Protein 1
Amino acid sequence: MGPSSGVKVVVVGAGLAGLSAASTLVKAGFQHIQVLEAMSRPGGRVHTTRPFGQDIIELGANWIHGQEGNPLFHLARERGLLLEESGSAKTMCLPGSLTPNNYFFEESGRQLPVDEVDQVCAFFRGVTSKAFGSELEPSHSAQSLGGYLDQEFAQSPLGASKVGQRIFEWCKRSECTDEASSSLYEVSAVQLCHYVALEGGFFNCLGPGGYQALVDTLLDSLAPGSVLCDRPVHSIHWALEEERHAHPVSVRCRAGQCFNVDHVIVTVPLGFLKENATAMFEPALPVSKASAIESLGFGTVDKIYLRFEKRFWPDDCDGIQLVWDAGPEDEKVYRYSQSGGGDWRDTWYKKICGFDTVARHPTVLCGWITGREAQHMAGLDEKTVGEACVRLLRSFTGWLVPEPAQVLMSRWGSEPFVRGSYTYPPPGVDAVREHNALAAPLPLPSDAAHSQEKPLQVLFAGEATHANFYTTTHGAYITGIREAQRIIDLYGDKKLDS
Ligand SMILES: Cc1cc2nc3c(=O)[nH]c(=O)nc-3n(C[C@H](O)[C@H](O)[C@H](O)COP(=O)(O)OP(=O)(O)OC[C@H]3O[C@@H](n4cnc5c(N)ncnc54)[C@H](O)[C@@H]3O)c2cc1C
Ligand SMILES: *[C@@H]1O[C@H](CO)[C@@H](O)[C@H](O)[C@H]1NC(C)=O
């Protein structure tokens, strides 16, 4: 029996962060690991489903972003879970991956020439990558990404053309899916340089088992019964006095079940923390952490899947993109609706960027929508949303578009244990400082009131706690290992038996 054998750890949340933390601890010889998951399934923001027959549909994460230095990519490759011809997948359209096989339509029904679209998208990509590559002037430091992009575009010859402006608005709307934001005016321009894109392609695809296969791999490394689903944690009591309690932390479930442990690793999404952190921790979280939870952005991205009986788009078409005369991203329209003037709820569908074809599903399209419009859509039923999508497809393309046989949407903004899709840096926020404040374990070394207490009582993992890989699955996975390692190191001086 090694010194770790009696150590009790609860992990809150069975997403990639929670499962990688649990798996890492088990591998290091820890024997009392309990994962508590609020939902009825493990996986969190990984949600692989089969609504249209045998083949998978991903309602959450879809791609592995980058290969080099990406432990999740390596795990997937080692287990043979990647798509064979990974890297050449041609099933999506986001800025930066523009293919000539995307059909861009204007509101008038005119199809835009490929070179006109490509010119504007290439410009957009160029100025955006300056922001990601920390090449901005000091004068941009307080600016939003939207403000910076508008300014650059206005100075370019492309900005003089009406059509160019419309395509540029499409690019901005599409970029919102990467930032999970209502608008790029809510995202900081300079802070984006802290996001680190790993080499090896942004869109690596998983095989027929999808992301669930990775979740299953992690679950297989845990003892049976280690993960309890339908166990929402209601409150976490820490800094308990040692004379009266055998363990410093008590984790209480909503149903009354209580776990007394040495360490708890909290991996709940930032969206959940924004709504619930105040009521969840006793004593309350330190100011640095509470303000990180408040100041970092957590936005919504949703997908709308439409299954048709028959394919109505040409064989070479990988996506149908919608270019509005004036979209919700248009700054004047945006400011107007902010002030309560126009009701964006009536035109929520204008936020749909377009519809992409879907791997393994020749008769399915996937629409993308973000921000407050996505939140609004979550309150509508499938029939209403399907009708809106068909109206758009008919009026923009002029094609004979049949009624969809099936409609399925994600509703990440209204999932009570997620409350959004992923993290972004708002203007004026020191994102690295806030990500790190969110990651710091309790008690904080600087906190005099708790300095005599046991270390590492409450630890934090999850996508939002990584200053460079936030928003990603590998970010989540890496933070789980990071927090497990802190606990392993705490007992590491004494030799563990394995
Ligand atoms: C639509 C969409 C598309 C995406 N696409 C990609 C992509 O292509 N590539 C990519 O890398 N990333 C993508 N992401 C992001 C990626 O899915 C996440 O960054 C990652 O899965 C987060 O993992 P996590 O463990 O940090 O959090 P989660 O997976 O959210 O896990 C946290 C868990 O905590 C649980 N929980 C919350 N509150 C409680 C409580 N009180 N008690 C117990 N349990 C609780 C939740 O139910 C959840 O299961 C996408 C996300 C979305 C929503
Ligand atoms: C989170 O907060 C919301 C709003 O206050 C509340 O309805 C919900 O029950 C809380 N969830 C948990 C698990 O405590």
Protein 2
Amino acid sequence: MSVLLAPRGTQSAELTVDLGAIAENTSTFAARTSAAVMAVVKADGFGHGAADVARTALANGATRLGVTNVDEALALRDEGIDAPILSWLNAVDADFGAAGLAGVELAVPSREHLDAIAGGLGRGHPRPNLWDEGAPDPTRSPGAYVHLHLDTGLARDGAEPEAWSDLCRAARRAELDRTLQVVGVMGHLSHADVPGDSANSTARTRFAWGLQTARAAGLRPRWRHLAATAATLTDPLAHHTLCRIGAGLVGIDPSRTTRLRPAMTLQAPVVTVRRVRAGTPVGYGHTWTAPAATYLGLLPLGYADGLPLSASGTAHVALRGRRHPVVGRISMDQLVVDLGDDPVLPGEVATVFGPGDAGEPTVAEWATWAGTIEHEIVTRIGSRVRRRVA
Ligand SMILES: *Cc1c(COP(=O)(O)O)cnc(C)c1O
């Protein structure tokens, strides 16, 4: 047996985010709808860098941003991003005052949230939303900008239909008190990735009822939004006045109908190459044994860096334009590749996944190998991996 080591100065694993791909995907969505486009940049822009994705999307057709919690919204403000931002999932005691001062719009899933937001902001002087509303009216505080959130069928976030008309009436009273303005009504689809599923039409009907109820209470929400990536691509009836696009921006299409451009490439150098005899077992638990003499390459990437352990035994990486299997169990910090007789040298760079242009594996393939979805792969790349924006 012999082991070859990588030369000194060999780089560590590196994740490249292709902002050109994000720009192209954003344009694709903007061209698919006459509704406005909200770029959803929660979870650090689906792992691609929230501020980079936000700026790129805003420069290519998106006009609004969406995130989960207020902290994510405030982090974008700290980056100097002044576009409208909606935050849709917060505890009832979240810092709504800070959100209002930063001009962050808030989703309201319950009466308790409504009261907390009205109370928290009634005392403050929220920043008016200049993008949508033009110059502020100096004679009055605009109050908080809110989007009432109706549960349209996931039993997850959003108000239950039974609580909806009370929520709408209370919101209207708060408008008249000038503590808030209802600028939006939102719902979400459970089956948008299965376009023909009857759950979609049920949800659309419930959403239409929710809008009617809001209108009957005297509300005039400008932003009416139900569709995310998949419904924007497959269901024009769900578009209303705003589409919320997250996964699609980074090249993931849950409906599998549209060619989008994956924005992530993950690469790692081969740090050692060793020659092993037939019958040599590899890795924890010896789950793989070399059937013949072969070369094994070691990559400094493991599940702590976001590669799923469950892809052990099925995953591949590309080296010199050819695919090689990952063998044995993926470890926390490393994985082993069977190079066969390919004369790969330490220091050469393996592509773990990329857009697939050169035959390298894609995030979609890794998701299949691991029995998961692409979203889970891209949002879990670890902090140890160096990041580069291209
Ligand atoms: C994450 C999320 C989105 C974005 O969904 P994609 O399918 O990734 O476009 C939209 N709306 C809500 C409420 C979300 O949580």
